[in-house]
Design a protein that fits this description.
globular, alpha/beta, 4-stranded parallel beta sheet, 2 domains
């Protein structure tokens, strides 16, 4: 019989009605955590004093004993890691790679398995809904639809109920409410409006309570429609050189986010480092821009676009990434929600 089973039997024995020394009947509420679910119930019983052998499990030293001890301390949870990584990071590398954060497109049917994997591997995830599930006709590209976004939210909520969101609170860095809002080619010829994201955010907040919601765009996009700001938790600042001087760019994004009450994820457009449809960052530029992003005191995560095998395997580039991830490990882990 396992130790955990023995302890559970002793606890149940303590709650079993006794035949002597009875007091008035009471009702006790209880919960049992089982995998991704929590079972809630209550028991009506008559409490009685039951003498049990002393059983101690010292989780700090991994010892069990019948000896009397002064106290039993639980093993503290590992410190929350600062989220640092790349979008599109392969799931096969979650446990073996250096990243502690990913931006990942996840189908509803694969959501809970991906979150469980991330939890086992110490990786924090920003969820990205598949675009085809957000369009009027279910195609990518296609015109964005709030009704489709609500249906997608319902599918996520079916596999990620509130108790699972609480359980994986540290793993779920956030949910991006779409992306590339002004890209006509991406969204069937019509840009996504801030008012549409605000409407979706209201619905997502009720169906996925406790999950941080954000937009993958600069805070200024939110500032141009002030009603959106209180409905979400974070915005995004992803640098390429056409956005100006890098420090000034990140500082401005941080200042706007702070004014709106938002957190901000920072990163570098590694694959289009010098503007749309340009070359990938050189090792020197990645070092410069990435260091500013990963060390910026206002960032709640450092996640860049994007993982490409050939670039990752370049020794010079990989050495820079190793250094950036080392800087991230030196930071305190934070969340991207307003209340984290």
């Amino acid at each position: 019989m396992s130790r955990s089973t023995s302890v559970l039997l002793l606890v149940l024995l303590a709650a079993t009605p006794g035949r002597t020394g009875a007091q008035s009947a009471t009702t006790a509420a209880w919960t049992i955590a089982s995998g991704d679910y929590t079972i809630y119930g209550h028991t009506d019983y008559t409490p009685t004093l039951v003498i049990l052998p002393r059983l101690v499990w010292d989780t700090t030293r991994a010892l069990d004993s019948t000896r009397t001890v002064d106290s039993v301390r639980t093993t503290p949870a590992p410190p929350l890691a600062f989220a640092a990584g790349l979008s599109g990071w392969p799931a096969d590398y979650y446990c073996s790679g250096p990243t502690t954060g990913v931006l990942q497109t996840v189908e509803p049917r694969a959501l809970i398995a991906r979150v469980q994997l991330a939890a086992r591997c110490g990786v924090r995830v920003v969820l990205v809904p598949p675009r085809r599930l957000l369009t009027v006709d279910g195609r990518n590209p296609g015109v964005f639809s709030v009704d489709s976004a609500r249906r997608l939210t319902d599918q996520y909520a079916q596999v990620l109920p509130p108790d699972s969101i609480r359980k994986y609170h540290d793993v779920l860095l956030g949910l991006n409410l779409a992306d590339d809002y002004g890209c006509l080619e991406c969204w069937g010829g019509r840009a996504i409006r801030q008012s549409e994201i605000a409407e979706w955010a209201d619905y997502a907040r009720t169906r996925l309570p406790g999950l941080p919601l954000g937009v993958r765009v600069e805070p200024q996009w939110v500032a141009s429609y002030p009603a959106l700001a209180p409905k979400i938790d974070y915005a995004w600042a992803q640098f390429h050189t056409r956005k100006g001087e890098p420090k000034a760019y990140f500082d401005a994004a941080a200042a706007t986010a702070d004014r709106l009450g938002l957190e901000v994820v920072m990163g570098v457009n590694v694959e289009n480092c010098y503007g749309p449809d340009t070359d990938a960052c050189s090792a020197a530029d990645l070092q410069r821009f990435g260091t500013l992003a990963v060390t910026h005191p206002a960032s709640c995560g450092f996640i860049s676009w994007k993982y490409e095998p050939a670039r990752w395997e370049d020794p010079a580039v990989r050495a820079v990434w190793d250094g950036l991830f080392a800087l991230a490990r030196g930071r305190e882990g934070v969340g991207c929600g307003r209340e984290t």
